[in-house]
Design goal:
four-stranded antiparallel β-sheet; 16 helices; alpha/beta
Amino acid sequence: MDTIWVPQVDPAIKPKYKAVVQAIRDAVGSGALVPSAKLPPVRELGWKLEMTPGTVARAYTVLTDEGVLVAEVGRGTFVADTARIEPPLNLMEMDVIEHLTGGDNFDVNLFSPHLPNGGQSKLIRTLLAQIANDPPSGVMHYPSRRGAQPAREAMLHWLRDTNLGPVNESDIVLSHGGQNAIMLIFQTILKGRRPVIFVEELCYPGFRRVAAALRADVVPIAMDADGICPDALAAAAERYPEGQIICTSPEVHSPTCGFTPLARRHKIVEVARRFDLQIVEDDCYRIGEAQEPAYRQLAPERGWYLTSLSKSITPALRLGCAVGPREMTPALHRAAEHGFFGLATPITDLAAALLSHPQLDAVRARTRDGVADYVRAAVNMLGGYDLRWREDVPFVWLNLPEGWRASAFCRAAETRGVRVRAAEEFAARNAQTPHAVRMAINAGVSLKSFEAAMARLRDLLDNPSDEIGV
């Protein structure tokens, strides 16, 4: 049965999720919540309590692990009937805690994000063991579109908080990570002998790599704090009539941590329609909630969307997806099926189980909390400089003080055991790039080691050598 019950949360209990846990325990113990009573959805309860959905999801997961609650995919979360409680999956075992108390490292690589373990390691290993014992798709057949339907449905569930416009599971094309999704989209769109692709002047290097593989030219477009400059895009489209695609990362721009507000997105759509350009949105770096509608919602006839699990769960699975305009979906499916038949069936079985798992929201919340811890450590050390950051983004962007060259700073940082990426790595070879560096969060080292690395970088900035401009 449903319930309109809302917990009376004790504000003295910290952190907030523990207060929610205690309130639900008390209600179950007192009989205010009876067996089989349905709890409010995470988002609804979070709104009523003025808390984030992740906080409520974490409380539900703790109680599910304890056997107080049970979560049923597609139905919701209920007070447990103890006669049918199964042994809970304990995600908070030692492998989850190790990233907080692990060994110290002097050498810290900040090239690519290394996510905190919010329980995904245990969850993935457990699901892999179950699949190995009884694989739903079997292990003796070629991948097929029909066989991957549960995985597409689970991916759609994963994307439920992303405003993509009208979308169903058949619109989802699974890919081997975000890079493969870019390749599939480009292969579907591009035509002609020498097509042109427009990218942000600082952008994810993978766009250029795919363009090179497909013999397409890349033209960088000037940016400001809100993203691509519409006037610059229009001028480039006038100059290059072979232009076919705009590549952009409006929710989380890599490498600058930027965000494109809705008004700017509408202007970019206007330019795209004027010059018949397709808009490819890379949403791989977002680990929090989307702030604005995707381009597929704003311009359904030309908006393409891609994402992956690499920056939110793990890069090890190489699992992502692409979604295109509805009329282009068959061609996008063909690009995948003609290229590699489809993802391996054990991977689609894992995707179906993982992306719809009732504990995954809590895992994501713990991972975001861990990222925020590392981001705050960077801000505490480097916040006196021109640092751009967000607690839900697994990297920070540092504009270097006057006199520093990015290449010199990277070399100096490496001598202090810290590897960072210069702005040049995100720009075309002949571009005029800012003297800036991107530093990814690396939770593969202890927080203590990460803080020490940030302290060494601050010392480098505070006490520059004579070679800063070399």
